[in-house]
């Protein structure tokens, strides 16, 4: 399993996940840079993603929805703030409605994803900082750790198809 560590810190309102992959950072980067690959790993395995817009550039947006086994759709969007391909990118992550407008009643976060070479593979660090400790607690109660772990662990299967 790629995810090797998950921590949250209420003092800093941070959720951090660490994963390791048997591929170069450039290959792991491609998973996020290509919307068709991102669809294969974004969201828990039983909630496949559909990427609608994908601009992984500073000032760009990524919009998507995940579909539950029952057909219910859950929308989200990223506002990309920084890109250092293939090493890292940062974005504001929000829950959205079907028009991709931000849902203010659910917590947003500032995220940084980094990919570094590590013993012939890649160490990926996923960091999300929430505006409030209540926001962090809300996503933890919603199952964010379990959902994100399931999503990240799908990357190995995608990389194995190369």
UniProtKB/TrEMBL annotation:
InterPro entries, per database record: ASHA1/2-like_C, START-like_dom_sf
Family annotation (Pfam families): AHSA1
Residue ranges occupied by any Activator of Hsp90 ATPase homologue 1/2-like C-terminal domain in the UniProt entry: 22-159
SUPFAM superfamilies, A to Z: Bet v1-like (SSF55961)
Family statement drawn from the similarity comment of this UniProt entry: Belongs to the AHA1 family.
Descriptive protein name: SRPBCC domain-containing protein
Native source organism of the sequence: Brevibacterium ammoniilyticum
